[in-house]
């Protein structure tokens, strides 16, 4: 028998041989056209050849070193785009992802420029946007403060208009009013869009946005009245200078207020914005985008963990009595940990596409002509004023995307950690890359709305709908609230175990569970927990529906069959996790509940032959995964040894501190 | 109204004023005698005055820097003990904990020395133990290999005896046989206890332990045939040099095998050990110790999160209509996240004490006279040979502590992350110290047996017991298997919602659930998932019982009353989380299930007035918590600002890379 290190690749090959579908077909489904895949290969090649951009040594660096290296990467990134004339947003985005860590110019690209574009008036845009696009200025987006995150209405920074000089005076009146968290604010940006409470002639005019110069354009030193810096290390985003900024009576010209909607005239007169709904649109787009991020990170981690589980021999499964150890993937618990996470990844992919599709359809209905592939914040130009009659769909999408953001970030965050633990000690090691991926993802559980804020928004919207359902959307694919028409008094109709695998039976169970939870919440309005269950019940029902619709639309028979198993597995798994809810009012009987459990376990060995093919189907390369234990070829042990050789401590046989610190200990008594 | 930064401390004071019990009484329960508390204060003062040991800058360092600074800390730690003649193990341990990160000499203290003491024969001990105690040698404990972790029988390193020279030849025959993970092995240790498969005259004699010199005692350079180094960064333990080591035909004298039990005579004859059970004893002790670690870390994190939630104003709770924001702790979801984790902490404390008590009682029954306060590995000397008739209790404790280790590390790991998310963005920041605490703890989910290995051990033992129950333990406090005598056909007897709060009703529900799960597993032996549920069901039942017994033993009435509420909350919470299991065969009816949910939510406002007092009751100091947002005085915002000022990036206004990397971008087109 070959030794373990040589056996591991053979084990992965063996797993691949048992697949019942064509992996390339799956990759086409996930990545898109062959032409685009070829383009990706080309762009990836450029990055892998670039001595700065191909860097993967982030795990050896502290926050300061990560940030400093990310400056070099920013520089190299911009130069690469220029050198190869890469101007398409999706191509730029693809390259950016390949870097494996966010850059300090991230917010400049994804939020600062779009905010100028969408919230400045024409004259302002003509002046500022080219400066930002050509990076003559580098910007941050300064909304969150030390004292207030999710509740924007609590912002304390003030902007008082001085008609005498036609200037705004930006000021941080309290300790907690300093801006806190904005990416790139600490050390990188020389300008920021600052959200502050506007006061005109003593009157509160709400939170408005202002463009504030922070640093001298030549020397980069902070301007007078600006106290700016980095807030220190975090779990993730160590390569970014999340910053703080306090203002001491900083004066900016009147025209530095972003005046597309609200305006202040020279004499100090206030012109109200026609509606506050615009901010809604931006939020929806961001939340839809985050479902994509969830798909992305989950697919990375579950690819790593599943491949490792197939290549890793350890112990003997219950029942197996041979002398040969079995792959960890042969353990039922390992399958029950990983297979639902493979399903979660594909489900998040389909759900993200559905939401994006609804968003784009809505925009096009409204006469907008936005490029869907640009950043999540470039939206809602041109459409203002015409969409107020389309609010129903916007409200549905806003509510549902809020609930799905809460659900999926939680599920993916928790799922990554379960997958990590399923890799034992090697999942604890940075060489697996799972720690890094988790650290970069996990902020999504709290940024752009914490779980509790989102489920309340979602739940409140559902409660309104329950009271006043409104007409069904004519296009069923866009009808996110169809569960309201379920029968909450029904019982599950399955009379045999096999019927519990039927899509209709499963989808209906989730709809009824959601509707029951919502009705319960309506009867107990003071209970936030009840609202939370209604929100999660609905989000899960929508997820299951989007996932299912994605599966049945697959034209390739063998792939569709496997994906359907995966979908069934996911549905049954969710039922067992929340079995109490599905058993409310005995919707599922005690007997049906045991069928669910049995059906779930019975699916595991059916999916097993396709497990590796399913993660291969995400089409992720070794360069992107950057994992010693998640390699395509399964050569995990040599890769782990090669990684350890790179550890800076191994550059010398004897560490510097030995003679100073260890030897004196050796000569003393412990 | 005062500004937010000044309001935060007042909010905490207000919370403290509503407590219905005396916090000092709780602290006495947790920490022990006033005398010991005074001693702790004194020792803490010594550490806080020491310029190296009071260091808290670990968050700014990468792995190499963490390790190098930990060498300095090791040195300062030893010197402090010497200077103040601190020799008592519990005092040394207390100081060690105060350092806030493990040191490279950790394994030398906790595993290397105890292994020499317990597994060497008298002559060997006389020679080696003083060398180790006086740190003339520094050791590692090298068991785990690259290819094998939890399955010790898979170890590949070989030790072949050469009678001609009376030496063992240690060798790493494969890539995967290299030792991998041992703490201190990479750069610190100059010796290691190495586990290798012994071959005598071509015969396999099982895995034995050998003392192997690794580095030159003077120059510290690796000896010939030794390839040793650090395995690289990890999620936690960055201050420790977890290492690898490969052997190329390394010869050691015959007497370097640890020969207390198994022996090899000069002519190569093998003397078998009288039993293999000893390793059991060590494992039990370690697993009991880990329940203490769980209590410790959970109490740290929930103290931080609960205090922050009381000091943090944000938004408006459902129903509240004022203009004044409410503390996050006023949200039902926040309470439902944090209060069960306060309960988990106290429950883990009581459970850990119970297990330790059983362990100590067992030892004393066996005629041992071990000091319970020494490290978890100094055990089982003196008792060998007399405990075989006490195996029943040992088996119970071994099985139960395995299940509890799996349960509690999972619950605490997950609970820490939930508590972190409940702190929003500030929980993502290193200033909260939650990230550091999580990183240092989370390894416990996989080290010393992964979840899946432990539940199988535990479950297998339970299945044996189900088939052959054996007599009840005469002392009910030591009877960990009492659930076997429950009535699995019974239904829950509660006929009113109030009855669901009765301890008997709750305890019985957990016993029946465990027994049902075990019976189910017995009928479906091939299902690892079924065994897992049996294991977790039993572990949870034991946890609830230990927690309850700890609560009713409290003599102070007001404290006992609050702790009982906390216990009820925890029991009800666990039922709602696994409601499907408690509803199996309709043990709980649909109506009873709704009562459980309602009773749980009804307890939250009852516990709320005591929430801060309950976390104060853990008696943790600000120095230990090391958290800007978890401070006793609630002055969280000033603390956050002070932390940010320490960030190394803030030492200069303009970062070094600006002119090299940013300016060229500013002059180019993005």
UniProtKB/TrEMBL annotation, chains A, B:
GO terms for molecular function: acyl-CoA oxidase activity; FAD binding; fatty acid binding. GO terms for cellular component: peroxisome. Keywords: FAD, Fatty acid metabolism, Flavoprotein, Lipid metabolism, Oxidoreductase, Peroxisome. The active site is at residue 448. The keyword tRNA-binding does not apply. Belongs to the acyl-CoA oxidase family. PANTHER family: ELECTRON TRANSPORT OXIDOREDUCTASE, PEROXISOMAL ACYL-COENZYME A OXIDASE 1. This is Acyl-coenzyme A oxidase. It comes from Achlya hypogyna (Oomycete).
């Amino acid at each position: 028998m070959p030794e373990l290190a040589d056996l591991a690749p053979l084990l992965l090959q063996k797993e691949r041989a048992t697949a019942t579908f064509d992996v390339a077909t799956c990759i086409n489904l996930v990545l898109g056209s062959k032409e685009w895949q070829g383009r990706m290969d080309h762009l990836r090649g450029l990055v892998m050849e670039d001595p700065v951009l191909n860097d993967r040594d982030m795990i050896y660096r502290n926050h300061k070193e990560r940030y400093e290296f990310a400056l070099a990467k920013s520089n190299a990134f911009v130069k690469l785009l220029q050198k190869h004339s890469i101007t398409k947003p999706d191509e730029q985005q693809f390259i950016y992802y390949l870097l494996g860590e966010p850059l300090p110019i991230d917010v400049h690209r994804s939020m600062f420029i779009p905010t100028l574009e969408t919230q400045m008036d024409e004259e302002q845009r003509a002046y500022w946007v080219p400066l930002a696009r050509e990076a003559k200025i580098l910007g941050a987006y300064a909304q969150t403060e030390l004292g207030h995150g999710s509740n924007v209405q609590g912002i304390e920074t003030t902007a008082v208009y001085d008609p005498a000089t036609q200037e705004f005076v930006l000021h941080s009146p309290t300790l907690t009013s300093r801006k806190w968290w904005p990416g790139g604010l600490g050390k990188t940006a020389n300008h920021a869009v600052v959200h502050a409470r506007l006061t005109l002639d003593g009157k509160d005019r709400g939170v408005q946005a202002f463009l504030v110069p922070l640093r001298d354009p030549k020397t980069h030193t902070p301007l007078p009245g600006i106290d700016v810096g980095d807030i220190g290390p975090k779990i993730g985003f160590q390569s970014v200078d999340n910053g703080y900024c306090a203002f001491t009576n900083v004066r900016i010209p009147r025209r530095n207020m972003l005046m597309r909607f609200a305006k202040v005239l020279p004499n100090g007169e206030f012109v109200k914005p026609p509606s506050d709904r615009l901010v809604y649109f931006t939020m929806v787009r961001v939340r839809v985008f985050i479902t994509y991020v969830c798909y992305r990170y989950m697919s990375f981690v579950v690819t790593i963990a599943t491949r490792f589980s197939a290549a890793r021999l350890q112990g003997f499964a219950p029942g197996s009595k041979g002398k040969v150890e079995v792959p960890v993937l042969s353990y039922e618990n390992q399958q029950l940990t990983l297979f639902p996470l493979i399903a979660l990844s594909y489900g998040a992919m389909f759900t993200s596409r559905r939401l994006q599709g609804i968003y784009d359809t809505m925009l096009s209905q409204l006469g907008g002509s936005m490029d869907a592939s640009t950043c999540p914040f470039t939206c809602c130009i041109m459409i203002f004023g015409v969409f107020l009659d389309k609010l129903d769909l916007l409200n549905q999408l806003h509510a549902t995307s809020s609930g799905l953001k809460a659900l999926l970030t939680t599920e993916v965050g928790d799922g990554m950690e379960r997958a990590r633990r399923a890799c034992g000690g090697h999942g604890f090691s940075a060489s697996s890359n799972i720690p890094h991926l988790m650290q970069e993802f996990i902020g999504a559980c709290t940024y752009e709305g914490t779980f509790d804020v989102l489920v309340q928004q979602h739940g409140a919207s559902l409660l309104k709908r329950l009271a006043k359902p409104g007409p069904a959307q004519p296009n069923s694919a866009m009808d996110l609230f169809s569960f309201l028409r379920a029968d909450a008094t029904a019982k599950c109709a399955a009379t045999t175990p096999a019927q519990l695998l039927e899509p209709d039976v499963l989808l209906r169970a989730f709809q009824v569970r959601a509707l029951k939870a919502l009705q319960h919440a309506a009867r107990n309005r003071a209970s936030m927990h009840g609202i939370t269950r209604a929100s999660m019940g609905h989000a899960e029902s929508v997820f299951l529906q989007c996932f299912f619709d994605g599966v049945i639309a697959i034209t390739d028979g063998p792939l569709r069959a496997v994906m359907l198993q995966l979908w069934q597995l996911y549905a049954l798994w969710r039922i067992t996790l929340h079995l109490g809810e599905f058993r409310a009012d005995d919707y599922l009987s005690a007997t049906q509940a045991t069928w669910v459990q049995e059906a779930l376990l019975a699916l595991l060995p059916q999916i097993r032959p396709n497990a590796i093919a399913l993660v291969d189907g995400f089409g992720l390369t070794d360069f992107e995964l950057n994992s010693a234990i998640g390699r395509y070829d399964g050569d995990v042990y040599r890769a782990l040894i090669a990684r350890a050789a790179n550890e800076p401590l191994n550059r010398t046989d004897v560490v510097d501190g030995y003679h100073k610190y260890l030897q004196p200990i050796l000569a003393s008594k412990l």
